[in-house]
Amino acid sequence: MSQIYVVYHSGYGHTKAVAEQVAEGAAAQLIAINADGEITEAGWAALDAADAIIFGTPTYMGNVSWQFKKFADASSKQWFTRGWADKVFGGFTNSASPSGDKQVAMITLQTLASQHGGIWVSLNLAPSNTKAATGADINHLGGSVGLLTRAPADAGADEVLSGDLASAKLYGARIASITARLRG
Ligand SMILES: Cc1cc2nc3c(=O)[nH]c(=O)nc-3n(C[C@H](O)[C@H](O)[C@H](O)COP(=O)(O)O)c2cc1C
């Protein structure tokens, strides 16, 4: 069984709701980055031992939250020793606007994985972009690098769009499947 972790920050619970679906799809454990941008020593040890790491962050001001960036910078310790090289990585970001510059945060996540020498898993879900498409459809935001999700600005944490939650589960399952294949 692969060891897969979803390490995420969520200021107000919306990204957490997505993280839970990604984790369910991947049969992964959740590690929350707290309001100070920190995870526990046990969390770091789990990530060091992981086969796959999935990053999650809200998009704040067009990029990852400062708490996620603090975690990313703290992972320079692993970078120095190549401790996370050849692990499988994926990522997701949630924000209020359909675009909201989520792609910038996504590229930050992909770049972080690449700095660590990781193997990045793309989304591989066809976009739902016809006139009939709604937020209940799979990948209605049309991501490809990783998973983009949306919670409208006036939506509670339990109102992340249903198509995005379903997409999250599928993306988690894809990462788990690829991780299992690479482990042999
Ligand atoms: C400081 C801050 C900056 C934000 N910047 C953006 C942004 O650049 N683009 C966007 O679409 N939404 C933006 N939002 C909205 C959040 O991305 C959205 O509310 C998201 O669901 C929050 O996720 P969370 O509950 O996991 O923190 C911002 C919210 C905050 C608090």
UniProtKB/TrEMBL annotation:
InterPro entries: Flavodoxin/NO_synth, Flavodoxin_CS, Flavoprotein-like_sf, FMN_Rdtase-like_dom. GO terms for cellular component: membrane. One of its GO terms (molecular function) is FMN binding. The keyword Protease does not apply. It holds the Pfam family FMN_red. Gene3D superfamilies: 3.40.50.360. Residues 4-146 form the Flavodoxin-like domain. Keywords: Flavoprotein, FMN. Its cofactor is FMN. This is Flavodoxin family protein. It comes from Novosphingobium umbonatum.
